[in-house]
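Look at one record.

>
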Amino acid sequence: MSGTETSGITTSRAEYCVVACADAWRDAGEILASPMGNVPTIGARLAKLTFSPELLLTDGEALLMGDTPPVGSRPGSVEGWLPFRQHLTLTATGRRHVMMGASQIDRHGNQNISCIGDWARPTRQLLGVRGAPVNTLNNPTSYWIPKHSARVFVEHVDMVSGVGYERAAAAGPSATRYHRIPEVVSNLGVFDFETPGRTMRLRSVHPGVSIEQVTEATGFTLAIPDEVPYTREPTESELRLIREVIDPKGLREREVPA
């Protein structure tokens, strides 16, 4: 395993990504977490087992993991029923934090998972808009991007699926009531929109990554503070949970290779 060594324990890039995703749900309280992808799912489960025990997790279908499983048990082994109407109530009132993927994302947080190229004649068909507009207007929505490149971080998305800050503001109070993009996590760093114009800012870089690497792989000008810290180190307890309890098969390393 290749990565950064702290206190004799080597942390991989994938594990930095996991803790960065987990921190998106830090102290979230009793809300529904909807992570999409291996690393966000591992991160959400890590958050529940550590600093956000009230977090609610689904298996992606209809079961609700409402209680914290004992450490050492299979994640998801303590489950409850979540009727679909109750799920809709949570999702329509800002009580869910989604972490989605993005085929494209721009400086304002507009996301595209629908198509590449002009909508009338796209060069590539993707997933389609799906639930992205409703997710972004009704819930805090973060993004996970496992391969940071200028093809993903673009000046303008080819089609808006998830709504960014400037479009939500233009639509008025009904669109901004629950709209929030807490963070974007990639294999290079962590980003937010804590700027006066609500444009994307570099919040931290993962150990082993330079600011120059991030800017070269981004297709627009990022807001960069004078001091950019490294993404925090996972604790020994967090690493043990990631490796032994939540992801013993190492799926995280397939999504973010060393």
